[in-house]
Amino acid sequence: MFEAKFQNFVDEAAPLECQARLSSLRGWLKSHKLDGFLIPRADAHQNEYVPKCAERLAWLTGFTGSAGFAIVLSKQAAIFVDGRYVIQVRQEIDARLFTPLDISEISPANWLANHARPGAHIAYDPWLHTSAQIERFKKILAEKGATLVALDENPIDALWRDRPAEPKGRIFIYPSQLAGQSVEKKLAQLRVNLGDHDAALLSDPHAIAWLFNFRGADVAHTPIALCFALVPKKGLPRLYIDPEKVDPKIKPKLQKFLSLHPSKELLQELRRWGKKRAQILFDAATAPDLLVETVRAAGGVANVALDPISLPKAIKNNAEINGARQAHIRDGLALSQFLAWFAHTAPAGKLTEISAAQALETFRRENGELRDISFPTISAFGEHAAIPHYRVTTESNLPIKKGVYLVDSGAQYLDGTTDVTRTVIVGAASKQFKDHYTRVLKGHIAIARAIFPKGVSGAQIDAFARQFLWQAGLDFDHGTGHGVGAYLSVHEGPQRISKVSATPLQPGMILSNEPGYYRAGEYGIRLENLVIVEKREIKGGERETYGFETITLAPFDLNCIARELLTPEELNWLNAYHARVYATLSPLADAKTRAWLKEATRKLA
Fold first, then answer.
1. Rounded alpha-carbon distances, angstroms, from residue 498 to 330, 460, 508, 534, 601
2. How far apart (Å, rounded) are the C-alpha atoms in residues 127 and 146?
3. CB-CB neighbours of 162 under 10 Å
4. Which structural domains are found in the chain, ordered by start?
5. How far is CA 29 from CA 78, 121, 440, in A?
6. Strand 420-426 vs strand 416-417: parallel, antiparallel, or unpaired?
7. Residue 523: is its pLDDT beyond 70?
8. Which pLDDT tens digit goes with each residue over 163-206?
9. What is the secondary structure of 242-284 as a DSSP string?
């Protein structure tokens, strides 16, 4: 019997309750002589996946996506999402209450400047915004004579009667053979990177977990502990964390390289450093505005820049790379077992989006190594596949009949994090669909085969994945690839493959390669593997040159491919990839899966 232990399918959107909630918020603002309130989809660390107690945007609007921003004024309200969620937001919210807007077309700050009255007082929770975000709002609003007001209390927390409790998951020491580098060495490198700063305030829980070689259990699908760390150039680092999260048994190990302090003491400590006129380095992407302003108000210097842990964490060491390879072999076998089962079962027409997701998780659990899924499985049939971040619920659950099925899923194993997408056909594929699928595949292969010199960023190769769609007047509204952590977040920076990523790609970085195409109301296509940046020796080459090693192992659906659209080079890559998939996985597979793999990876002539 298949079941999902790490994902539920409850419809968490509650649009019928949102009118009363919005009215209550407006009443609170009026009673406090405020004209508006900013509501980001964020916690105090700007995490993508947040604890349930931080789902304030969903509570107020009904929108359950992982990125969004709302503004509430006395007479108007709007919600802003990116291209991944333009369809989903309209399905989940009441458009009579919140105007849904594409953030690429108008920013929240510009919308607010257009709609706030002169002299308005707009409130915000300084724990939930970075200083850069607040500076943008302040600059634009100043031109209208409006001001931002930092609150000591979040009104949504006051109004949310059944708000879940703050998480208190226990942390655990991450095995040294998987971490690949000691805390002492990581700290030494961090202190070199501090330059003239007296200390760094780390606000990204992923960075803190990586630096101190521990993992946590505060957030679903991502093994992190919500905490902060202050690392001085000299002396013992200070970890600010809820004491209940630290098992007394591991305290002695942690206290070899840090001191433990309750989270509530952080502001006082930052004031102390500020009074000493200290220079503190903050992470521009995750540090709450409140912490930055606390240091400045006390007389210190708060410099906001790239997290000094971000790049070292992104460049995986040998232990992390080997762990990722092993995790992907294990995961590739589970995914192939699922795809074999799906190919046999789906034609009968008895599967649903939920039952397929349950089956995939069950196959992953059978290897005994699964710690969690790395994000809620996107199990999408037909028109739902055109929603890039679709989340199936008992309300939206579609039966899987003849048509297109897209499954985007991932796993958290102790030795690595996975993320993979396959799009398959149930029944016969139309000529139009084959054309679209093959254009996406050609873009995927172009990234996989890319050769580029040192210094090239993801922005410079992003078009490789889009070129064949562009030739047909098509495109997709998300990045081509994101970084992936080592038993950490499935979405990791600073590296990306996207139109706006300026971070140079370096050996050891793990990224996704996931071009797509989405035909609203009909189907969606996405093909995703993870790759590692590696050095390439080019005969006669004069510059240091890099390429990608593909580590995901699972067949692409040959029944979706328009063979005549593939060049000989693309065909050679596909056949070689499928040969490697079969050679690696078939010795580990059961007889049924092995037989399916042989057919699914057959050579295309």
1. 29, 8, 19, 19, 30
2. 21
3. 5
4. 15-159 (3.40.350.10), 172-313 (3.40.350.10), 320-600 (3.90.230.10)
5. 16, 10, 48
6. unpaired
7. yes
8. 999 999 999 999 999 999 999 999 999 999 999 999 999 999 99
9. -GGGS-TTTHHHHTTT-EEE-GGGHHHHHHHHHHTT-EEEEET
DSSP 501-512: --SBP-TTBEEE
Distance CA 468, CA 442 (A): 7
Q: What is the dihedral of CA 64, 70, 72, 78, to 10 degrees?
A: -90
Side-chain-side CA neighbours of residue 138 (13 Å): 12
Q: Which residues pair with 69 in a beta bridge?
A: 40, 80
Backbone angles phi and psi of 484, in degrees to 5: -135, 140
Q: Which helix (H) or strand (E) holds 370?
A: strand 370-373
* Distance (Å, whole) CA 127 – CA 47: 12
315 pairs with which residues across the strands?
Answer: 509
Distance CA 428, CA 559 (A): 8
* Alpha-carbon span 563 to 165, nearest angstrom: 54
Other CB atoms within 10 A of residue 567 CB: 10
**What DSSP state is assigned to residue 204?**
-
Tokens found for residue 291: 């912490």
User: Both ends of the chain: CA-CA distance in Å?
Assistant: 40
Residues 6 or more apart whose Cβ sits within 8 Å of residue 409: 335, 357, 360, 373, 375, 377, 378, 379, 419, 420, 421
pTM of the model: 0.95
How many alpha carbons lie under 13 Å from residue 193 in its C-beta half-sphere? 18
Per-residue pLDDT of 543-590, as tens digits, reads: 999 999 999 999 999 999 999 999 999 999 999 999 999 999 999 999
Give the burial string for 580-597 (b: 16+ CB within 10 Å, else e).
ebbeebbeebeeebbebb
